[in-house]
Predict the structure.
Amino acid sequence: MNPVLLKPEADTQSQVVVRGVVDRELTAMLWQDRHDALWIPMVEGFDDLAAEFDLVVIEGAGSPAEINLVDQVNNRMVEHADATALLISDIDRGGSFAHLYGTWALVPEATRDRLAGYVLNKFRGDPTLLAPGPGRLTEMTGMANAGVLPMLRHRLPREEGAVEHGDAPADAPSVAIPRLPFGSNLDEFHMLSHAASVRWATDAASFERADFVILPGSKHVVADLAWMRERGLDVAVARAAAAGTPVIGVCGGAMMLGMSLDDPNGAEGFARGAAEMLGLLPLRTMMADDKLTVRSSIDWEGEQHDGYEIRYGRVSGGDDLVVARSALGPVGWRSGNVVATTIHGLFEDPAFVERLLGVRISPVLDDTFAQLADAVEQHLDTDLLRHLTST
């Protein structure tokens, strides 16, 4: 978990989460006034890792050359860690040499002194055509050419999760998942997307021929449900449920399937008060001031599964529909073809997915990491990388 997380609440505001806990005082603070308060958990997080491990890899965020901002994530941290740095440029977007030179020119001197090399990533075509660009860039900046990575067809989950991979078998069942503006934990459907035809839906028609409908997690349940209603997706989900299509809600999606959600203290950052949900299950959600963040071992109709809970909502009702429990109480409900659970991670469990959807999934990340490691070994200057990690 990042020591500091900025969680978007709207187009122009973010909730500040420090060490996994929402900090309402920092959230209300002006952006430029937050820096010192956020730096403390950031540097403490790094120092704890550096004390325990021989090598710490720091992935930057955004660009270190955003000269309109105070950059702590890249520039201040690389100086604190006295780290050797590489610039990575997505050459598929074009303009990589300008991007790399411009970044080198604009970063603070303390960062520039630590920029040992650069990598051109996602290259399509013949790398010999790049000459003399890499050599000239090295002459102009002193940064070594660490290599050119080709565009790879890999199976890593995308950062935002809501991406269709398109490599499921031709006869695979179809799964419709609304592409919620504030959807969360979407990468838990990554393995499913390789065994089923997953469609991230923004219109009602996407639900018409789906074999399954899944309502995913949500950072802001009320706002996401309002978005669904604007597009008629609420009607499409209800119609699918009435037609016998399995409809499954996960965490925020489970809350949507209930009767109401009450947020008396504005935990979601929107208007306080009760909101009507889809009404497909007799569940009611009360948003608490504290977020529940626990790993859970659950009993789902006699079978054991592991997952995690990360939510403000406390769900009650539907006592006669409970099909899963954890140490904290009910975490799964079923009424015919409508299923709800507050547990994340179940769709990363092959046994659970096969039991619920009849679809066999298999882990893909180990093979993907091996593929990426092979690409690094083949296309990057590994002698340079080893040298940088020893200095």
Summary: The longest helix spans residues 35-52. Residues 4-152+380-389 form one domain.
